[in-house]
Amino acid sequence: MLYGHIDQVTKPISRIVFGTATPALFNAFRSVYGEAPDFKQRLDAAFQLLDDMYAEGVNCFDCADHYGEEPLGEWLEARDLRDKAVILAKGAHHNRWRKRVTDFDILHDVHNSLAKLKTDHLDIYMLHRDDPTVGVGPLMDALNRCYDEGKLGAFGGSNWTIPRIEAANDYALKHGLRPFTVSSPNFGLADQVCDLWGGGCVTISGPANADARRWYAENRVPVFAYSTMARGFFSGRVKSDDPDSAARCMDEFGVKGYVCPENFERLRRCEALAKAKDLTVPEVAMAWVFNQRALDVYALTAPTKREHMRTNVKASEIVLSDDECKWLNLE
Fold first, then answer.
1. Sign of the CA dihedral 262, 129, 282, 16?
2. Quick check: is 138 in a domain?
3. Which of 92, 120, 188, 235 could cross-link to 228 by cystine, CB 3.0-4.6 Å?
4. Model-level pTM greater than 0.85?
């Protein structure tokens, strides 16, 4: 496993981050409180998956106010791993009634996350969504209050555009506050051609976002990339010579966001390079992410089996040439 380092985080951080938005941890949500008749089996399954990820060298776990926190907190306490694990938590996500990107919601969600995760600090914290109609000042004030109280380490935004990040950091600079130092956009070999969830998704993939990638490289802002495998498009189950396989193997959001002729051509090239190098399609697609050498990338993945995480770890260490990377990305 490769590890990186980020300011305000005292521990090394695994380059592969385990995302807790998986069935095993969703199913354990109620079982934490014994509300399901099979709660012990559910929690045991969640613990086993987390044990497997940790055994493969993963020490960074991604969770959010509305998923993963309860079973993760129980597991960290039971295994006595809080001092070794890096928690990446997210909050201020919209709900069905309103957008929740406010100073009140930040303070509310941070304190809820601390309680559910059974800890007094969150190593990395992201605002899960943005609301461009809200001024950045109160948001930065709230985040800095939590930082000053020792409750947050590094913080930033998930699905925040570069102009909004710059506005937040300009405010911080003018007021002597800590700025955003991390970000979590979509990033991977597949071009995200449509907003998956109908508003607010931010991607730095594809030819249209070359300037965004350049900004991240020049400013050395760590990228916690989500949907690096395009929600299963590069799983190996989708075949470039069978376009209908995408609808059979992917959920509606993946089909909406990634199925297009250009991505099928990227997949065809992944298949060809995988055959030439005795690799798999998932290994080639993940290796491409980690061979974007100008970027400081951490890949958020949510495998359901230990062997799938082992594949991700192997892929993160595969070296591709610049020419191979450009060819895969249709450059």
1. positive
2. yes
3. 188
4. yes
| Angle of CA points 148, 82, 86, to nearest 5° | 65
CATH number for 225 = 3.20.20.100
Instruction: Give the span between the Cα atoms of 195 and 6, in whole angstroms.
Output: 29
For helices 103-116 and 136-148, angle between their N-to-C axes, nearest 10 degrees: 30
Quick one: CA dihedral 21, 93, 80, 83, positive or negative? positive
Buried b (16+ CB within 10 A) or exposed e, 251-267: eebbbbbbbeeebbebb
Domains held by the chain: number: 1
What is the full per-residue pLDDT of the chain (331 aa) written as tens digits?
999 999 999 999 999 999 998 888 877 776 666 566 677 788 888 999 999 999 999 999 999 988 889 999 999 999 999 999 999 999 998 888 888 899 999 999 999 999 999 999 999 999 999 999 999 999 999 999 999 999 999 999 999 999 999 999 999 999 999 999 999 999 999 999 888 776 788 999 999 999 999 999 999 999 999 999 998 999 989 999 999 999 998 888 888 989 999 999 999 999 999 999 999 999 999 999 999 999 999 999 988 899 999 999 999 999 999 999 999 999 8
69-79 helix and 23-31 helix, angle to the nearest 10 degrees: 80
Please give the radius of gyration of the chain, using alpha carbons only, rounded to the nearest integer: 19
Let me know if residue 36 belongs to a domain.
yes
Q: Is position 255 within any domain?
A: no
Strand ranges (E), 122-262: 122-127, 152-158, 182-184, 223-225
Q: What gap in Å lies between CA 239 and CA 244, rounded to an integer?
A: 9
User: Residue 124 and residue 151: Cα distance in Å, rounded?
Assistant: 10
Is residue 116 situated within a structural domain? yes
Quote the domain boundaries for residue 133. 3-230+282-320
